Amino acid sequence: MRAYVPLTISGLATAQGAGELGPGPLTAYAVTPGLREWYVSDDIEELEYAALSRAAAASLRLLAGDPGSARRRVVVAVDVPDTLVSADPDSALDASSLGEVKIASAVALTRAAAVHVDAEDALADVTAAADALGAADHGDDDAQFVVDGAEDHELLWFGVQEIPNLIA
Predict the structure, then answer these.
(1) CA–CA separation, 116 vs 50, rounded Å?
(2) In this predicted model, what pLDDT tens digit does every residue of 110-159 receive, in sequence order?
(3) Bridge-partner residues for 20, per DSSP?
(4) What per-residue confidence (pLDDT) applies to 168?
(5) What residues form DSSP beta bridges with 103?
(6) Distance (Å, rounded) from C-alpha 144 to C-alpha 138?
(7) CB 21 within 8 A of CB 109
């Protein structure tokens, strides 16, 4: 199963040093039955993009909780055995956890297929979104508009061999 693990640049550096994402259980995002139903598509590429987008939103939450971290969303795409991944069937009822899964144990970086990271031109919007997230969660429409501005930026694709350059 392809799963998308949300991180920060400092989390990516930690994973690079350890050679794995972990420890488990890891929160990730994947194409789940609930995500399929919500997105209403049979196109696997579209569904995986939706899961990646959910992970990018989770990465933004990590940034909001870590003011010292570089203001770039990071998502690592990993291929893991289905037996290591579980989804809460009740999560389909909660829009904020659509596509959320748990990976039971740490995942070796050798299982990573790619790393997705914000481009430099997204930094101002991602910083503003991380700062506005708390207010948006409390119903502030203006803050939600700022948060949505970060989602307008596509994450760039990087090969796993490029991680040292991303964390430098």
Answers:
(1) 14
(2) 999 999 999 999 999 999 999 999 999 999 999 999 999 999 999 999 99
(3) 108
(4) 87
(5) 26, 85
(6) 9
(7) yes
